[in-house]
Amino acid sequence: MDLVVIDLSDLKGIAQRAKAAGFEVELREPDYLDPLGGVVDVWFEDQLVQVVNFRNSMNSMGGELQPLARDAIQQAKQFLPGSTTIRVVGVGHLIALKIAAWDERTESAKPVRDVKGLLAANEDALEEARAVCDRFGRTRGLNKKLKLFADAGDAF
User: Fold this and answer.
1) In which band, very low, low, confident or very high, does the pLDDT at 67 lie, cut at 50, 70 and 90?
2) Domain check: are 68 and 51 in the same one?
3) Are 97 and 145 in contact (CB under 8 A)?
4) Domain shared by 123 and 148, yes or no
5) Dihedral (Cα; 124, 126, 127, 130), 10-degree rounding
6) Confidence class of residue 2 from pLDDT cuts 50, 70 and 90?
7) Structural domain of residue 35, as residue ranges?
């Protein structure tokens, strides 16, 4: 599960509260070149929840992920009836963001597992991901990942 915030101070507060509650927590603050504004990893048993800040206030250019992240947040759907603060990013945007993260952090296996899981769990995921990737210049990255999956025997 990934959660999104839009301010570094919110991210730091979440990390502090999660640590105080006894969770294993890692806060990764951004440097000025980071496309993201920091990430907090929170482990609950064997599950990882990532809290991501899409706005890096130290990067005045905003980074190349900003248009995609902004669109994902704007298109997010209400999660709970009556909730105005909890919204869910659609699977197409989520896969496109994971593809972008995979491109940025090739040493991490998490985006690989996430993309595979999202594609396997939702029959419309590939079509939605293609549409978002096409709009935000991530089609080549998506096709490259799909070829890697096909070479490994996974078909979507």
Assistant:
1) confident
2) no
3) no
4) yes
5) 150
6) low
7) 1-59
